[in-house]
């Protein structure tokens, strides 16, 4: 059984925040949350895979919202 870590829980929260966005304004708030995550965990040297993964989820959600709102 894996023990949840602080970084893992924070990562999951950022993913959940991004995926729950329904407007571009909400997505801007989620992007601020993502930047705070990177700033906080960048100091301790978190794996770059987290950063790439979060950026991809944010970008995919932006594309989804843009296509839906047209």
Can you describe what's shown?
This protein is mainly α and 70 residues long. The protein has a domain at 30-70. 79% of the residues lie in helices and 0% in strands.
Provide a short characterization of the protein structure.
With 70 residues, the chain is mainly α. The chain has three helices and no strands. The longest helix has 22 residues, at 48-69.
Give me the secondary-structure topology:
Layout: H1 6-19, H2 24-42, H3 48-69
Helix pairs in contact: 1-2, 1-3, 2-3
SS summary, helix count: 3
Form type? elongated
Question: What oligomerization state is this entry in?
Answer: single chain
Distance between the termini: 45 Å
What is the N-to-C succession of helices and strands?
A: HHH
The low-confidence runs, each spanning 5 or more residues with pLDDT under 50, are none
What is the percentage of strand-forming residues?
A: under 5%
By helix and strand content, what is the structural category? mainly alpha
Mean pLDDT: 88
DSSP, total strands: 0
Largest sheet: none
Fraction of residues in helices?
over 70%
Radius of gyration (Å): 13 Å
């Amino acid at each position: 059984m894996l023990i949840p870590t602080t970084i893992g829980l924070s990562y999951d929260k950022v993913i959940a925040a991004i995926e729950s966005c329904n407007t571009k304004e909400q997505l801007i708030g989620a992007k601020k949350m993502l930047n705070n995550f990177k700033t906080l965990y960048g100091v301790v040297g978190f794996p770059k895979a987290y950063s790439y993964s979060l950026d991809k989820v944010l970008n995919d959600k932006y594309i989804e919202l843009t296509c839906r709102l047209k």
